[in-house]
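Here is one chain, start to finish.
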Amino acid sequence: MDYGSVVGAPLKTNGNEHDNEASLGAQSNHAKRDGKLMLTRLEEDRLFDPAKDYEDASSIMRAWIRIGALITTMILECLPAFVISEGHKHLANIMTAEEIGIFVGFATVVSAVAGNVGLQACSGTTRAISHHYVERSNWRSYMLKEMRVSLIISLVLCSLLFGAVMIGMKIKAGNFNPEAAMVLAFSQFATIISAQFTGIGGPVLFKIYLKKDPAGWAGPFETSFQDLVGTFFNFVLGNYLFEFFWALFHWNETFVGPNLT
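Its structure:
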């Protein structure tokens, strides 16, 4: 009798029926263990099913479920707004009015790109958790792999942004201004890394540990944090980074501020 055919896969037999029966017993134990694990997961999904709760909710209850995360986002986003309002003034010491306009315009690009990176990371992680590819036992290895992905993405996008800022500065302000381009590229790198980290960490934290719906509460954790990082690099550290990169590109000159004539 070919015992391998019983389980749907061929087993190597050596004529020892006792060994073959032991192999079948081991496979049966594995199947039982996997079955118990699947039942545990199904039971957990049944007890914690925010999608079903949202589906059964009325319009008012759906708004109530979502409004808390949105109010939290609004409050947290006030911090970057205040930083921009103060940091914008310091740009006048290092750039002309035309250059400031281009710089602020591309700062919104930095925020938008980082937001998209965070959205991809958040939705991908939420999907992986729902399919049990990411669990409490292996989320660290998943995050490490995804952070390596963000390094590759950031290098490509920062290079493209650097070139776009240089071209925009030349067309609108009459000079390439590589210092401003480097500041924005550096900010883009930092925001992509932070967005990837929070985009993964949000669903892991809320779904696996806090048992909250990641569809709503991962958003404030991800978008607000990367916006704050980008604003900090552009409008707080931007002045120092600009002078640093200016000295790097003009090592034999003295920085005297923008030419306002």
